[in-house]
Amino acid sequence: MRVSVLIPLPLVGPYDYLVPEGLVLGRGDFVDVPLGRREVRGVVWVLHDSDTPDDGLDPAKLKFVLGKCDVPPLPERLIDFVSWMAAYTVTAPGAVLRMVMRVPAALEAPKSLTAYVIDGPPPSRMTSARAGVLEVLADGLPRTAAELAEEAGVTSSVVKGLAKAGTLKSVPRPADPPFLVPEAEFAPVTLTEAQSVAASELTRKVAANSYSATLLNGVTGSGKTEVYFEAIAEALRQNKQALVLLPEIALTVQFLERFEARFGCRPAEWHSDLSQRERRRTWRAVAEGKVRVLVGARSGLFLPFSELGLIVVDEEHEHAFKQEDGVIYHARDMAVVRASMGEFPVVLASATPSLETVVNVEQDRYGELKLPQRYGVAQLPEITAIDMRVEQPDRGKWLSPVLVSALADTFAHEEQAMLFLNRRGYAPLTLCRNCGHRMKSPHSSSWLVEHRFTGQLVCHQTGFSMPKPKTCPACGATDSLVGCGPGVERVAEEALDLFPDIRIQIMSSDTIRRPSDAEALIAAMHAGEIDLLVGTQMVAKGHHFPGLTLVGVVDADLGLSGGDLRGAERTFQMLSQVAGRAGRAEKPGHVFLQTYMPEHDVMHALITGDRETFIHSEADARKELGLPPFGRLAGLIVSGPDERQVIGTGQALAQSAPLAEGIFVMGPTPAPYALIRGRHRHRLLVQADRGINIQSYLEAWLPQVKVPNNVRLTVDIDPYSFM
Fold first, then answer.
1. Residue 370 class from Cβ within 10 Å (0-12 exposed, 13-18 middle, 19+ buried)?
2. CA distance 31 to 40
3. What are phi and psi of 525, to 5 degrees?
4. Would you state the pLDDT for residue 513?
5. Residue 376: what pLDDT?
């Protein structure tokens, strides 16, 4: 028999192998195969009816499969999903499979420990130590010698003596602790009428065991999580697995607590902060069906669920769901595809849904459930724009008199406040006031950001850092380097100068590096140990701070310039989410937006609460230009260490682009970040009418150009970032 095995490498496709006699293989089995001089692991992708299919290959030249891994096979629908996604993203199937097989250790048979249970009569010589061990084992649960010794307060030799006497029997026990199973009926919550209607509809869709896509559209604080928890409960009743995708690790802290309160235990987790042991344990338990609910980052979409019956994409509008390197994809869109291929429901939850999702609702591709009011007595905050052309702060300051007065009033009433600025560090630019030299990252075109707390200049694109020099590297002037513009550290410094007695914390990716950091900060906010929280976009991620009544946005215009086609939409979403942190309990909230463009459509929509008019205005503008979601885009990024080769490759691509009706090729042009880690970057943009298969066009075009070995060509279908 012959099989085609896909290897998790960016190769053209699967390779054929012969199956040795006595080895039974099925589609999806993990196998070891030879590849050149090495041994690699792959997945049986195709089963051939005989060893001589009519494809011209000589069976005598084929190598044999070496063995089969002791792990459940990759589910058929996941195999089909990998193939579909590879075709959609114009990526080698093996590169997509690599995201599935990202934990090689999980394919090895799990180790077991030696544990002990009572299996014979008490020993002829009973001591208090031996009696203590037997008392611990009376519940029938197997324990290792070390565990028994600790619980009974004895030495391990006592345990071994009981085993030698025949009182105890050794039994194997898995080294990994089992995952607890959430209980659908553990602690149901009382829902509002609107929540009950939405929850009933989602529950019905899960019980139907068929595909559906539903937008759960609720204002901030309306209780969307409690609604889709009921859908998860129904999936558990149906003995199905459920996956919840969150855009940021920082979101998981409060989510896990709410989940445990509702279902009696925490779900499994999947994110970059897990240890390799936990990743191995979780991956294998998912494959074996022992994980019933998992919450994770976008990569959780590629776990080998055997009985997946529901996907929830929370904060579906978030840009963080877009993977920008390696295999480039949008997890929200791929979640919809996986649900469609698996024939089960997907729920997209947001207070500020993306235009793509809104259009899908309007065109009846998705259903919609609305939660128009906040839960309980909480009301949406009042939003006020501060015209910075009139209310100017003092020179070198960034907080307007109006916002400073509001902060003072908030602190006087012993309430909490938040200042939002989506810029990390102290200052986004460091330059020499003597010669004007701007500090840049070596081998990159990005500016170095000053981080005053650490005394470092940092490149946020590459991670490069260096101490801030005493002298200018260009002119040699001493103490001439100054920070220009504000980051969150500078805003916090200004606030502390104004209010020296308050307790301030900064929340950004520089201070929150792991879930435990976020958990500690959130606990401090809940305990009232923080008066002012200053943060980047991380503070907008679904946090519930009952004592927070004031939000000040330091630079509301940030993101409205730069030519990003989604700039206005993203700014509206970000500011709406930030504003939604205020007044989520009994006390009313107030939000101040510092802006130089109070007349902008985004500011008007935020102040009036008229999101519908803003969304339809955005839709009309994109429709007129044929931009997503009313047209197709694909980005081509050409990069390499030799700028001339990069330019030449980009020009060759542009010149060889086939002429086709409804397709326009623009570029090449230097990327905004034209140099990163010593690689020069140029971009081309392909725009196509909505009904055109842009992947087929690319597959016919790109092979015509020979790309030099040290030049990389990356395809980005449906680009979100143009950097």
1. middle
2. 8
3. -65, -45
4. 79
5. 72
User: What is the signed CA dihedral for 342, 348, 353, 358, rounded to 10 degrees?
Assistant: 50
Q: Taking Cα atoms as reference points, which of 199, 547, 227, 223 lies closest to residue 374?
A: 223
Of the candidates 106, 111, 98, the residue with the CA atom closest to the CA atom of residue 175: 111
Beta-carbon count within 10 A of 407 CB? 22
Query: How do residues 676-690 score in pLDDT, each as one tens digit?
Result: 888 999 999 999 999
Residue 562, pLDDT score: 64
- φ, ψ for residue 283 (rounded to 5)? -55, -50
* Contact call for residues 458 and 672 (beta carbons, < 8 A): no
Q: Hey, is 25 helix, strand or coil?
A: coil
Q: Give 101-105 contacts, CB < 8 A, sequence gap 24+.
A: 101/8, 101/41, 101/43, 102/279, 102/299, 102/302, 103/276, 103/279, 103/280, 103/283, 104/41, 105/276, 105/280
- Give 12's pLDDT tier (boundaries 50, 70, 90): confident
Helices and strands, counts by H and E, the chain: 19, 32
Judged by DSSP in three states, 11 sits in coil
Helix boundaries (H) for 208-330: 224-237, 252-263, 276-287
One-letter amino acid for residue 653 of the chain: L
237-265 residue pLDDT tens: 999 999 999 987 766 778 899 999 999 99
CA distances from 603 to 486, 573, 608 (A): 21, 11, 9
In terms of Cβ atoms closer than 10 Å to its own Cβ (0-12, 13-18, 19+), residue 640 is buried
**Per-residue H/E/C for 133-199:** HHHHHHHCCCEEHHHHHHHHCCCHHHHHHHHHCCCEEEEEEECCCCCCCCCCCCCCCCCCHHHHHHH
Domain ranges for the chain, please list them. Answer: 2-101, 112-174, 193-371, 382-423+486-619, 631-717
CA-angle at 40, arms to 34 and 45, nearest 5°:
90
Instruction: Give CA–CA dist 504/417, Å, rounded.
Output: 10
Q: 619: which residues sit within 8 A by CB, 6+ positions away?
A: 355, 358, 359, 630
Task: Determine the 3-state secondary structure of 614 from DSSP.
Answer: helix
User: Encoding tokens for residue 280?
Assistant: 């191995």
Question: Which residues make Cβ contacts (< 8 Å) with residue 523, sequence separation at least 6?
Answer: none
- Asked if pLDDT for residue 563 goes beyond 80, the answer is no
The answer to whether 307 touches 239, Cβ cutoff 8 Å, is yes
Give the C-alpha separation, 50 to 625, whole Å: 54
Beta bridge partners of 635: 685, 716
**CATH label, 631-717, candidates 3.30.1330.30, 3.30.70.600, 1.50.10.10, 3.30.380.10:** 3.30.70.600
* Both tokens assigned to 702: 């790109």
Round to whole Å and give the CA distance between 330 and 338: 12
The structure tokens listed for 357 are 């999702």
| CATH pick for 193-371 out of 3.40.50.300, 3.90.550.10, 2.60.40.420, 2.40.30.130 | 3.40.50.300
First to last CA, the chain: 49
Q: Which of 705, 590, 543 minimizes the C-alpha distance to 638?
A: 705
Q: What is the DSSP string of 561-594?
A: SS--TTHHHHHHHHHHHHHTTSS-SSS--EEEEE
pTM: 0.88
Tokens 């097989």 locate to 101
Paired residues of 417 in beta bridges = 532, 550
